[in-house]
Amino acid sequence: PAKEAPGAGPAGPAPRVPVSHRQASSVSSSHALEALREGAGAARYTAEKAAIVSIGLTVHSTPVSLREKVAVPEAEWAQAISELVECPHVEEAAILSTCNRMEVYVQAVSWQRGSREVIQWMAKYGGVSEEELIPYLFVLRDRDAVNHLLRVSSGLESLVLGEGQILAQTKAVYQAGQDIPGFGRNLNGLFKQAVTCGKRARAECRLSEGAVSVSSAAVELMQMKLDAPLAEARIAIVGAGTMSRLLVKHAESKGVTKMTLLNRTMPRAEALAADFPDVSFDIQLMPEMLRVVGESDIVFVASGSAELLLTEENCAGLPAASAAVAGGGGYVGISVPRN
């Protein structure tokens, strides 16, 4: 028999290699990846991070003919939010729709997919194609979306710098959202901070000085066009909402003590008139609109109607402005949709 080499012992078992150092087969790797995806740790490695996204149209870049189609009245915010959160990648939603902007804020589990779903919803709601909509849209994500809302609520993105109405509208979104399930915790906190920011901006930066709303700017414009004091013109206001209230306030500050107020319902018009005891109002309902317009020198239209009220056809036969304003009267429309 062969002799063993001197000093050589009997052959022992092969050395053990730690599991972490062993070469994994393709089969075991696939099983491990599948287990990771199905297990509790999947979200850490495979899920997309949720994002706050703002998508919308503004007065600075979008014609009113498109903005008015996608505008969402406050009465329809709840339904719109309900439809948005039914999208696969949208968890929370909010609507900020005013005369100057239509913006949708969402928390999306995937910002690309969520953005696509919001754009599709906006096109469907407005009855327009995505091709018509996309060139005018802005899309902002996370920090940029948050900063944009803070600028909006502060009046820095408004047509009239520092105007106060947008702060009230932002607050209205926050308040309405308390009763809407799709207005979730993250957007609730965002809009609450936006309201706080808007208040601080006006208090600390003196943004509320001068003509600080579209309504006040409209009154200033008509005063500039007239050769006579605004108080000498026969003024009519169509609508009795917030913008009409601001019109009355600024007209009164110019010395106007008489005006005609047209509205669809009497109680709301009477409530507005009651807030201005020093102004004499002639309150009329909408069936009298053309008669009142024909008897007025200046007509401000701030109605919430979704249809045109004053057209070229129905105003063609109306008389010209009175001699008191030297023919300098006219119509000023500040509604969206246009009336």
UniProtKB/TrEMBL annotation:
Which Gene Ontology terms cover its molecular function?
A: glutamyl-tRNA reductase activity; NADP binding
Instruction: Check the record and name the HAMAP family matching this protein.
Output: Glu_tRNA_reductase
Specify the protein name. Glutamyl-tRNA reductase
Q: Does the keyword DNA damage apply?
A: no
Among the record's GO biological process terms, what is one? porphyrin-containing compound biosynthetic process
Q: In which pathway does it act?
A: Porphyrin-containing compound metabolism
Would you say which domain of life the source belongs to? Eukaryota
The entry's keywords: NADP, Oxidoreductase, Porphyrin biosynthesis
| Domain Quinate/shikimate 5-dehydrogenase/glutamyl-tRNA reductase, residue spans | 221-339
Compositional bias, Low complexity, is annotated for 20-31
What residues does the Glutamyl-tRNA reductase N-terminal domain cover?
55-204
Annotated spans, Disordered: 1-31
Q: Which Pfam families match?
A: GlutR_N (PF05201), Shikimate_DH (PF01488)
Against Gene3D superfamilies, the record matches this protein to: Glutamyl-tRNA reductase, N-terminal domain, NAD(P)-binding Rossmann-like Domain
Query: Can the keyword Lipoprotein be found in this entry's annotation?
Result: no
